[in-house]
């Protein structure tokens, strides 16, 4: 019927089903490379090296190894190693635990200063 209508010169509207008759779930379009070039590079912020050095110095001043500090704050030793080397994505819970364990601030503008022990708000 479609071919007959086309032969007569009539306007025929057809729509193809997406990936019909093919075993393709994930087709790559021609625009993928163009899209890759256009989109900006997205990556997570990492802990600064300054914070890593403060953690290392605070830990060593207390005579703790990376493993000791990790055990003290209930984290894996690899977490401490990542924070000290600047590879870790900052997590405020972990940073808070490390701050309390070594007694030095790691967040805010006064990084490396001792934590003031004030009355806790309830």
Automatic annotation (TrEMBL):
Gene3D superfamilies: lambda repressor-like DNA-binding domains. One of its GO terms (cellular component) is nucleoplasm. Residues 7-16, 33-43 have a biased composition (Basic and acidic residues). GO terms for molecular function: DNA binding; TFIID-class transcription factor complex binding; transcription coactivator activity. It is found in: Nucleus. Residues 1-43 are annotated as: Disordered. It comes from Aotus nancymaae. InterPro entries: Cro/C1-type_HTH, Lambda_DNA-bd_dom_sf, MBF1_N. Keywords: DNA-binding, Transcription, Transcription regulation. This is Endothelial differentiation-related factor 1. SUPFAM superfamilies: lambda repressor-like DNA-binding domains (SSF47413). Residues 22-32 have a biased composition (Polar residues). Residues 55-109 form the HTH cro/C1-type domain.
């Amino acid at each position: 019927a479609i071919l007959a209508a086309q032969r007569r010169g009539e306007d025929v509207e057809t729509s193809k089903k997406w990936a019909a008759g093919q075993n393709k779930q994930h087709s790559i379009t021609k625009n993928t490379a163009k899209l890759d070039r256009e989109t900006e590079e997205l990556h997570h912020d990492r802990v600064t090296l300054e914070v890593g050095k403060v953690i290392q110095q605070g830990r060593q001043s207390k005579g703790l190894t990376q493993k000791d500090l990790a055990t003290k704050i209930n984290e894996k030793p690899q977490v401490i190693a990542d924070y000290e080397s600047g590879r870790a994505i900052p997590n405020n819970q972990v940073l808070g635990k490390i701050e309390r364990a070594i007694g030095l601030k790691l967040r805010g503008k006064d990084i490396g200063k001792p934590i003031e022990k004030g009355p806790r708000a309830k």
